[in-house]
Design a protein that fits this description.
With 261 residues, the chain is α+β, with helices and mostly antiparallel strands. The chain has a single domain, classed as Alpha-Beta Plaits (2-Layer Sandwich), CATH 3.30.70. Helix content is 35%, strand content 31%. The chain has seven helices and nine strands, in the order H-E-H-E-E-H-H-E-H-E-H-E-E-H-E-E. Strands 1-3-2-9-5-7-6-4 form an eight-stranded antiparallel beta barrel, surrounded by six helices. A hairpin with an 8-residue loop joins strand 6 and strand 7. Helix 2 packs antiparallel against helix 4. It is globular, with a radius of gyration of 18 Å.
Length: 261
């Protein structure tokens, strides 16, 4: 992924804590919140003379194709909102897309995309409209209000890239995440918290992993901001004993397709 994209890709505040799903609920598409989830990330820039409307018509064709071959994913688009960009460091992409599924579905979809005539036809149209850098990652939910995540199609997502500090074990970091989830089991204006782990194509990522915090709206995000300003920053300072983090960035997120919709 492009460096700037990775910075924005997942900015979940570690200090926003939650409790994991109880195991009885599943995300759309039958995904288990307590198991690793496959994420295909696409950092995209429209080509000169091409429009978002043209691209969206292609995306709708893809949804029909995926339904035809039984390889539907939860298709998510994020638009930069409150990022680290400035005149000297502009965002170098237009939008980011995430195709969320189990690992088997992703593998089957790619095999079909590369081997079927209609898949190749769509691919040709895709590359004529936009330049997209494609990456693969795994998502681990730390805490989730599953019903709300399954029904809320317009929301705010905050990313924060982090790297484990030298001398801190993976077990210690996992235990810290678990303790945060337990301490803030009701959430802080958010409806979900996940960690994002680049697997393929993430060598230029600004961290080893990213936190993603999902808010239903700006009101929810500002609830967290008020908590942070009122003393919650102390919890984040404590987390920095375990990991060095880049800082939060916010995106407007739209769920464009869910399996079976």
């Amino acid at each position: 992924m492009k460096n700037c994209f990775l910075c924005t890709l997942i900015s979940v505040s570690l200090t926003v804590s939650f409790a994991k799903a109880d195991g009885h609920e599943t995300f759309t598409g039958g995904l288990d919140p307590n198991a690793p989830i496959n994420v295909q990330a696409q950092v995209c820039t429209l080509k000169p003379g091409k429009t978002q409307a043209q691209y969206d018509r292609l995306v709708n064709k893809y949804f029909e194709w995926a339904k035809k071959y039984d390889v539907e994913t939860t298709f998510v688009r994020q638009i930069p909102f409150l990022t680290h960009a400035n005149p000297n460091n502009p965002n170098n992409y237009d939008f980011i897309e995430f195709l969320v599924s189990d690992f088997e579905t992703s593998g089957k979809a790619w095999d079909l995309w590369m081997s079927t005539s209609d898949g190749q036809k769509l691919n040709e149209e895709w590359v004529s409209l936009a330049s997209c850098d494609i990456k693969m990652a795994a998502l681990n939910m730390q805490w989730a209000k599953v019903d709300e995540l399954n029904s809320d199609d317009e929301r705010i997502v905050v990313w924060n890239w982090c790297s484990k500090k030298e001398g801190v074990s993976s077990e210690q970091l996992i235990a810290k995440h678990d303790s945060i989830a337990e301490e803030y089991s009701d959430g802080l204006g958010n409806i979900g918290w996940a960690t994002f782990h680049p697997i393929i194509g993430g060598a230029n990522a600004p961290g080893n992993f990213a936190h993603i915090v999902v808010y239903p709206d700006m009101k929810g995000l500002m609830e967290h901001q008020e908590w942070f300003a009122g003393g919650g920053w102390k919890a984040r300072s404590d987390y920095h004993i375990y990991a060095e983090c880049r800082g939060d960035e916010a995106f407007v997120e739209t769920i464009m397709n869910r399996p079976g919709s």
